[in-house]
């Protein structure tokens, strides 16, 4: 018999429970990806297309192929199921409202639909707080439960993918522009190998150093599932600090699974009043707020489709606390430009910063200038992304308003305060 494996944000052949199960149970397997033209192209589009090209190459090496169709995922999958006489569809379970709606539609079709783990280290519905409730609202108890969880085994790629004969694989569009990082499982695994070897040991001390840029930058690969989060967690076991970050990712996914409206509504339903100020929002987006550490982060985002975590915290806090603007405006801009932009991590972190999410200390102070001096003491990060300030020496770069005159082209401070 024949089974379809519907790929989505699990674009790999290593440690892929859905692919492994289909290859084990069915005589013939059709790996499928459906490009949905109704989902607007964004920063991630080129990265996605590279991921698909790489996945197709890997599947071909295993004797199979990646079948690509365009249109609505459910309609196209069912159409293909009819053409090849498939008896089952295997897919990795996901948490966003879009993915959940898709799963619900498949469940109504007259075909066996099987959901598999693989998008997170621990499946989003695997841990339940002992005090009741369907998910954890606070990170630390989740972390303790997460550490105790017994994992499924990490799976090798299947030996062979047997495709039904006479199937047209379908054309893959060429990426319009090359993304700042190469997409795909091969590039992701290479990056993981190199980074784990060279930098994992220094992660605890170096991950907050803005200019040092010592974090893994694996987030786009995790976003598209080019790298298995479980395999990564196992390989990185000796650094608790790093594994904890993967747990944060799982944490936001299990919140999103329980609260799929996370990108639209305040998770804790705290009423906050936000200011409306289009000019301020525009200045923030462009990296022209007059606060160098904020501008450096925002320009890194525009230049690379990625931003250091410490900078994300600084620019997000600045938007919601200094400028008093709605976190959703910030999250939308991030989502549009980040290669790793995903609903759970983006909205979860924005709500955490805005104090509308699961932060246990939502009112705590956070001074961007103090952060700048602590995490970019010599100003090297700012100098890299804000060329107007490149000639300002040392830490003075963080307070250009103290210079005899502002460097040409650099704006005065938008928030007007001093400190
Ligand atoms: P590393 O430090 O090497 O960490 C390894 C992995 O752990 C990351 O790739 C990521 O998958 C996960 N991780 C690390 N920190 C977090 C965190 N705070 N929350 C959840 N997972 C984490 N991350 C995204 O993947 N997508 C987003 O859309 C996103 N939006 C964010 C928005 C804001 C306002 C903030 C403050 C953080 C956001 N993050 C997001 C989390 C974090 O900033 C990035 O995951 C991290 O910077 C990616 O770089 P890295 O791969 O080098 O991380």
Tag the structure with descriptive keywords:
419 residues; alpha/beta; Rossmann fold; Serine Threonine Protein Phosphatase 5, Tetratricopeptide repeat; DNA Cyclobutane Dipyrimidine Photolyase, subunit A, domain 3; 17 helices; 5 strands; 7% strand; globular; binds flavin-adenine dinucleotide; DNA binding
Q: For this structure, what is the CATH homologous superfamily of the largest domain?
A: DNA Cyclobutane Dipyrimidine Photolyase, subunit A, domain 3
Give a short account of the largest sheet.
Answer: 5 strands, parallel
- Tally of separate domains: 3
- The CATH architecture classification of the largest domain is Orthogonal Bundle
Low-confidence stretches: none
Number of strands: 5
> For this structure, what is the CATH class of the largest domain?
Mainly Alpha
- H-E string: EHEHEHEHEHHHHHHHHHHHHH
How many helical stretches? 17
Structural class call reads: alpha/beta
Helical percent range?
Answer: 40-55%
Summarize the structure.
This protein is an alpha/beta fold. Helices cover 44% and strands 7% of the residues. Helix 2 links the parallel strand 2 and strand 3.
């Amino acid at each position: 018999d024949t089974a379809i494996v519907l790929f989505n944000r699990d674009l790999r052949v290593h440690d892929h429970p859905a692919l492994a199960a289909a290859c084990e149970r069915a005589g013939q397997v059709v790996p499928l990806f459906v490009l949905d033209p109704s989902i607007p192209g964004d920063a991630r589009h080129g990265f996605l297309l590279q991921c698909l090209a790489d996945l197709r190459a890997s599947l071909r090496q295993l004797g199979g192929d990646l079948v690509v169709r365009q249109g609505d995922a459910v309609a196209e999958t069912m159409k293909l199921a009819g053409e090849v006489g498939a008896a089952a569809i295997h897919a990795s379970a996901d948490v966003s409202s879009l993915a959940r709606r898709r799963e619900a539609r498949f469940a109504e079709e007259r075909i066996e639909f099987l959901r598999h783990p693989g998008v997170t280290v621990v499946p989003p519905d695997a841990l339940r707080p002992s005090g009741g409730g369907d998910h954890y609202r606070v990170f630390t108890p989740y972390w303790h439960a997460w550490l105790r969880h017994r994992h499924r085994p990490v799976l090798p790629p299947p030996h062979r993918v047997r495709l039904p004969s006479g199937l047209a694989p379908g054309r893959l569009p060429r990426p319009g522009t090359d993304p700042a990082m190469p997409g795909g499982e091969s590039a992701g695994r290479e990056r993981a190998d190199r980074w784990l070897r060279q930098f994992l040991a220094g992660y605890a001390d170096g991950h907050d150093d803005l200019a040092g840029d010592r974090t893994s930058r694996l987030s786009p690969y995790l976003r598209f599932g080019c790298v298995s989060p479980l395999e990564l967690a196992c390989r990185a076991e000796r650094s608790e600090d790093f594994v904890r970050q993967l747990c944060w990712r799982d944490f936001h996914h299990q919140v999103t699974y329980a609260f799929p409206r996370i990108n639209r509504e305040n998770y804790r339903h705290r009423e906050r009043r936000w200011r409306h100020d289009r000019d301020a929002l525009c200045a923030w987006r462009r990296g022209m707020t007059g606060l160098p550490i904020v501008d450096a982060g925002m320009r890194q985002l525009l230049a690379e489709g990625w931003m250091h975590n410490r900078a994300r915290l600084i620019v997000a806090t600045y938007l919601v606390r200094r400028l008093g603007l709605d976190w959703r405006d910030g999250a939308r801009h991030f989502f549009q430009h980040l290669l790793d932009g995903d609903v759970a991590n983006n909205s979860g972190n924005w709500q955490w910063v805005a104090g509308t999410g699961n932060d246990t200390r939502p009112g705590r102070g956070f001074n961007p200038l103090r952060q700048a001096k602590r995490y970019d003491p010599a100003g090297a990060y700012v100098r890299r992304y804000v060329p107007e300030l490149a000639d300002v020496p040392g830490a003075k770069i963080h307070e250009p308003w103290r210079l005899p005159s502002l460097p040409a082209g650099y704006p005065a401070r938008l928030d007007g305060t001093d400190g």
